[in-house]
Design goal:
2 domains; mainly alpha; 0% strand; 10 helices
Length: 192
Amino acid sequence: MDSSNAATAETQWVCDALQRYEAPLLRYTLRLLNGDLEAARDVVQDAFVKLIQQDRTAVEDHLAPWLYRVCRNRALDRIRKEQRMQTSLPETQHRNGRLTDADDAQHHQPDERAQQPETRSRLLVVLADLPERQREVLRLKFQGDLSYREIAEIMDLTVSHVGVLIHTGIQTLRQRMSGSPSPKRSASFPSA
């Protein structure tokens, strides 16, 4: 393969990755950055710039977890930087220019039960009450369509811990959605 064909193949590979992963990465990053759309776009753009700079053979076999991990790390870096630069903001400024769960719900393909507006709103409220790690693994699993292994790689957890977080999160969502009291947590399985 000559150099122009190789460059074309590399360009096509990056374009395919962008087309496949840009929207899910943006949704994921939006959640990490509390709905700050511009910051999320910057983070996702940074991830694809970094992808262009990588050797394709080094990331090709684990592209999805690699992209999610880059976005997660960049988002967490941005959060830490903002926390250092700012004192606490009034609650009204936190919402300024940011998407809420209700706004973001339009971008997801909910199941049949969640298509009802009241159920979807209630689900988002219940989801927001889960511990942060449970929310994140559930989003990676059901919005990002990633495997337990890929989620473990992204979040630097064991596969079994990811399984426990997902199981506990789903169990809690089901119980809260049905109005049942929350189960007592087992001391052997941490929820977050």
